[in-house]
Amino acid sequence: MTQYISFRRPDGTSSFGRLDGDAVHDLGAPGADAWLRDVLDSDLAALTTAGTFARADVKLLPVVPNPGKILCVGLNYATHVAETGREQKEYPAIFTRWADSLIAHGDPLVRPRETTRFDYEGELAVVIGKGGRRIPRAKAHEHIAGYSVFNDGSVRDWQRHNIQFTPGKTFPGTGAFGPALITPDAVPDLGSQRVQTRLNGELVQDQPISDMIWDVAFVIEYCSTFAPLSPGDVIVTGTPGGVGDKRNPPLYMKGGDLCEVSIGVIGTLSNPVIDEA
Question: Residue 257: which of 109, 139, 144, 145 has the closest Cα?
Fold first, then answer.
């Protein structure tokens, strides 16, 4: 299975490459910043290696560190709709997250000092490889570069200041994204992959992707209708039931915790939690 990562080289420049065990094959032009989103509409397998690093010598970055858009789907599993007490709508709820809120696998999730209600949300991330507008559902798969794992860390009180979610969804250091991009050919049965979230080892979310109310193809069709999609854009597809805010008693993330999100063959995203100074 081929895995593509974004990383910072030992010289401080940013690049992307293929992960092969403990080796990272650098696919960016040497000596300058290079970005995965700039090559997602090409044949990644045909890219030539500019050099190789030991995995321990590079610093992981979010899979796509600089997406033009991050579109997040709210309330996309019936279990989550039910636990929130909301009515299931005809169309998905879409909100945005900013790129500078993203962290990589292994980086700390940051609980903002404005809240004690910092919640986990394990989710499948879809990375766009071929751009387009009004993409028909039947052709949506042609526009997917690959999949990754996302933790949409949510500041629940700020999320509910008003009817829009965004203030609670894009605090710096709250959106974990990684560790790698997995190409669609390596995930022949996407629906059977389970979104599983563990907080300090306790399984708190566990549901197959097939339980989505709106599947990936529909979400691509819907989002590309109101916004043109570009290579490197990220669609975060929604969280299953089991969020901490709806437990009795509530279960929130705090400094010293460890949150892990696994999605079958797509990988495991692991992040410690710290309290903002």
Answer: 109
**Measured between alpha carbons, how far is 155 from 166 in angstroms, rounded to an integer?**
10
Pick from 218, 198, 214, 215: which is nearest to 206 by CA?
198
Mean pLDDT by 10 residues, the chain (277 residues): 95 97 95 96 94 97 98 92 83 95 98 97 98 98 98 96 92 98 96 98 97 97 98 97 96 98 98 97
For domain 70-275, the question of CATH label 3.40.50.1980 is answered with no
As a whole number of angstroms, the distance between CA 229 and CA 70 comes to 10
The architecture (CATH level 2) of 3-60 comes to Roll (2.30)
Residue count of the chain: 277
Q: Is the pTM of this model over 0.90?
A: yes
Instruction: Please give the pLDDT value at position 186.
Output: 96
User: In degrees to the nearest 10, what's the CA dihedral of 182, 183, 189, 190?
Assistant: 60
Domain boundaries, the chain: 3-60, 70-275
**Tokens at residue 96, please?**
């945005």
pLDDT value at position 268? 98
